[in-house]
Amino acid sequence: MLSSQATVRVRIDDGDVGRAVATLEMLAGSGSTQRLPDPSATWLSVRFDPDRAADVNRALAQAGIFVARLEAGAELETLFLELTGDPGAPTPDLPAPGTASESGESAAPDGGER
Q1: Which of 14, 54, 96, 112 pairs with 29 at a CA distance of 20 to 30 A?
Q2: CA distance 42 to 24
Q3: Model-wide pTM > 0.70
Q4: Is 7 contained in some domain?
């Protein structure tokens, strides 16, 4: 599960985005790279083995793109959603609040006491 969420994130100059995406997708595969929403810096996220982060840095440097910062690991938001389940998935029917009797027993499905 963790390997499917493994990423390498790189901060680069805004003018290098197009070349960086092309370079990274040659390394990691088509559709592997996306720009992250961050108004203060230009970050790209690449689905790639974090243990091979040096390969990402090397490929970008060989293309004349110099990385200002590089981070490797799992994307926490994606990992959290995977661990906690699909937010759109149906949930089991739970008794409505206040339907349990004072003895701790819940009401029968037909509304009567058990």
Answers
A1: 14
A2: 15
A3: no
A4: yes
Q: How far is CA 47 from CA 12, 31, 104, 109, 114, in A?
A: 17, 9, 49, 48, 54
**In terms of residue numbers, what domain contains 65?**
2-76
Is 99 a domain residue? no
Count of domains observed in the chain? 1
Q: What is the pLDDT of residue 6?
A: 86
What is the distance between the alpha carbons of residues 45 and 23, in angstroms, rounded to a whole number? 13
- Tokens 């609040």 identify what position? 97
Amino acid symbol at 47: R
CA R_g for the chain: 24
CATH of residue 51's domain is: 3.30.70.980
